[in-house]
Amino acid sequence: MTAAAEGQATPRIRRAVQKSLLQSEQAQGWALISPTFLFALVLLVAPILVVIAHSFWTQDYLTIDRTFTLEQYRIALTEPIYRDLLLRSLYVSLLVSVFTVVLAYPIAYFISFHGGRRKGLWLFLITIPFWTSYLLRVMSWKVILGYNGVLNSGLMGLGVIDEPSTALLYNTTAVVITLTHAWAAFAILPIYVSLEKVDRTLIEAATDLGDGPLRRFLRITLPLSVPGIVSALLIVMIPTVGDFVTPRLVGGKDGVMIANAIQAQFGKASNWPLGAALSVTTMAVVTAMAAASVFIIRGAARLAR
């Protein structure tokens, strides 16, 4: 081939290669997710970077001193009030996650293995509470647990008490009860999806080999549903740490969580750097706790097998 012919063929080959790369599945996949990725990058990563930057600054009355400092992290990690709020938030989140999964698993199991043709109907019924506002559901629990609650009305009607009691309201117990109900469906759905993927022939084979219902559940169904349990725990655990509406409405002084302190710093206190440091510290601790939970659950599942 002459040099002139080779020079003419090179652009055609280059265009053919570029066209084949653009038409490949990988290129099409990147093109498909690029808008969503850029959207998430702008609206999620950018605000987090702004918060992290603020956490290294200092509030100087009405202005912000942008001199680099770790003072806000020292306050967030050493001040007893913030340390106690963070520990209480982690405690409440862990309790809510465990209670929600324990209550959600039997429901998901029933729908998956005994729902029959009505699986769709059962799932539809589970989503009905979410037709109303989250705030309305929290206020409903405030009515149930509080001054005008059903329990108080019943006890007063029976003459057990003379005045309404708020013993079940404005404490950590009220926060745990309300959050467990609020996030129940978010735990049921991933566990149900995981149970639907369990190969029924494995259960039939275990039955033929003489395993009873409990042994089949512990050796087959439960280990294979671990991904759904892990997903449910993470879905419930991560948002509940940062919930500030529920503690404010039903928690009272004894049920305040770290998110209420963060909201106060960005609000009335007007100390954005401290609020940012509290936010970053909480995110880091929650990430570590979530990773530890996944590690422990998967390790327990391997031992069960």
From TrEMBL:
Entry keywords, A to Z: Cell membrane, Membrane, Transmembrane, Transmembrane helix, Transport
A Pfam family that the UniProt record links to this protein: BPD_transp_1
Main location: membrane
Cited InterPro entries: MetI-like, MetI-like_sf
Membrane topology per record: Multi-pass membrane protein
Spans traversing the lipid bilayer: 29-57, 90-111, 123-147, 167-195, 216-238, 276-297
Compartments, as annotated in UniProt: Cell membrane
Entry GO terms, CC: plasma membrane
Protein family (similarity comment): Belongs to the binding-protein-dependent transport system permease family. CysTW subfamily.
Entry protein name: Binding-protein-dependent transport systems inner membrane component
